[in-house]
Amino acid sequence: MFDLPSSELRKKKIQSVDEIEAEKTKSNATAGADNQKNLARWRLDLLFDEGTFDEIGANVVGRATDFGLEKKRIPGDGVITGSGEVNGRIVFAYSQDRSVMGGSLGEAHAKKIARIQDLAMQAKAPLVGINDSGGARIQEGIDSLGGYGEIFRRNVRMSGVCPQISMIMGPCAGGAVYSPALTDFVVMVRKQSYMFLTGPKVVKTVTFEDVDSEKLGGADVHSRMTGIAHLAFNDEEKAIHDVRELLSYLPQSYLDTPPFILTADPVNRDIEELNSIIPESSRQIYDVRKIIDVIFDKKSFFEIQKNWSKNIVVGFARLGGYSVGVIANQPAMMGGVLDCNASRKASRFIRTCNAFNVPIISLVDVPGFLPGTGQEHNGVIAHGAKLMYAYCEARVPKLAVILRKAYGGAYIVMCSKHVGGDVNLAWPTAEVAVMGAAGAIEVLFRKEIASAPDKNEVATKKVEEYETKFLNPQRAAERGYVDAVIHPAETRGKLHRFLKAHLGKSDEQIPKRNGNIPT
Predict the structure, then answer these.
(1) Which of 135, 174, 320, 384 is catalytic?
(2) Is 174 a catalytic residue?
(3) Which of 409, 439, 452, 489 is labelled catalytic?
(4) Strands (E), 4-140
């Protein structure tokens, strides 16, 4: 038998690799011809540090041959998968290519995504999915549907193990929407990306509603009305830039802590402006973001779900370089009252922080839960319980500062000592009570006020008496429910010291299959 010299064999093997790369480049050029550039690769280039991305499975092709698919065996099968570095840390990713059969998901396409999910899980590293697909590949039938199921199952397995971020850069419809919905964060682009189970044509046929894709499931719909989109942007570049920033607040996995980023902002600086930031009247509003901006490291606050349920503010920030999750009632919107959506928003964010070892700091100014048939019929009991469950369940350090109102059941659920707050501070302006003075005297002294010659004088006197006894933090401090009453100006320094004191917190819980969180 004739054998080639080893040097010739080596040369042929190298030539074979070059041919494969040339074919892949040719396929990419053909696939992206309509767009002048391959968007799927361009997005990955923006996401990863320059020169760090390595592709996996570039030469995979589908094996289906029905309906002319034997002529469309394009390397990569419409999705690019691989790993690289984002801000110097390993991240896995996939990016669907809509220029290849509409980015539709077939068997090989799904296996590539499932493979990169498995690799991220094994490496204990974040996964970023860039979705831009027309949905299931009809020509592949059940293999396509089965592929979605494999992806969903891995989304659930990865949940709470490694951060998962979904970027919707184009259409995401039908069963495809469930993968992003199962991840930790969903990012959308206005007038470009949309998510819905059934498209405008089906909606019109079934319900006779005439609606376009943007109004049915665009970025503004999901960032303002449903809360499904955690972040929404006007362009792709900004979206990808902020995903890189978001990753900087998160650890690689549940086994790690978030990265510490050195700050030049002094941790012990007094913030004199906080001493007068709370209005004299408890009925006056203020923007809690102003407090957040000056307490935490300068320009570090990264807000999540900014445009949905604005009566509560959630997001990541840094305190002395440490990553923390911030939950704050927003008096500038509905007086900061809790309702169904605010409870959902906060509880989800608390559980995300707890999953990834991010300490939680709560800024409390809450007059109670929103009353009314609308809230009761929409399940405010269950949603309020969901918020309480999240705080009780969280094992990370939990610090809270009562800024002003902390009334009734809303006081309890907002990280009070009773639901596991580690350190609870209060400003002198704090009002910890069952309810406000006007409501309380109406219950306690209704008959006395009604029978008095001068009703206004008696009512005013009773209000003052109630406010003196109960609408201050002293009673709560005496009972140990508030650990210290502090000057607002020293809040940053106090929180930083208490945070460092509790970073080593260990709170073992009873082993069980799972808790049964209210829905």
Answers:
(1) 174
(2) yes
(3) 409
(4) 54-56, 79-86, 89-96, 127-131
Distance of CA 503 to the CA centre of its chain: 22
51/44 Cα distance (integer angstroms): 11
* pLDDT given for residue 30 in this prediction: 41
288 and 209 in one domain? no
Nearest to 432 by CA among 463, 466, 455, 458: 466
Instruction: Give the Cα separation of 61 and 296 in Å (integer).
Output: 50
Q: Residue 478 is encoded by which pair of tokens?
A: 């005496």
Helix (H, G, I), strand (E, B) or coil at 43: helix
Provide, rounded to the nearest whole percent, the portion of the chain with pLDDT above 90: 71
Could you tell me which residues come within 8 angstroms of residue 461 by beta carbon, excluding any fewer than 6 positions away?
none
What pLDDT is attached to residue 508? 81
Residue 300 contacts residue 245 (beta carbons within 8 Å): no
Beta strand ranges found along 351-493 (DSSP E) = 360-366, 398-407, 423-426, 431-433, 484-485
CA distance 338 to 312: 8
* H, E, C per residue of 264-309: CCCCCCCCHHHHHCCCCCCCCCCCHHHHHHHHCCCCCCEEECCCCC
Quick one: tokens of 344?
């959902």
Residues 319 and 407 in one domain: yes
Q: Is residue 252 part of a domain?
A: no
Alpha-carbon dihedral angle through residues 333, 408, 290, 473, given to the nearest 10 degrees: 150
Please pick, among 175, 199, 321, 439, the residue that the annotation labels catalytic. Answer: 175
CB contact at 8 A, 207 and 219? no
Residue 410 a catalytic site member: yes
pTM of the model: 0.91
* Per-residue pLDDT, 428: 95
The answer to whether residue 347 is domain-embedded is: yes
Number of domains present in the structure of the chain = 3
Strands 398-407 vs 423-426: parallel, antiparallel or unpaired: parallel
Residues 217 and 130 in one domain: yes
Quote the CA–CA distance of 508 and 479 in Å, as a whole number. 27
Can you give the C-alpha Rg of the chain in angstroms? 27
Q: Does any domain span residue 508?
A: no
Q: 410, 426, 459, 477: which is the annotated catalytic residue?
A: 410
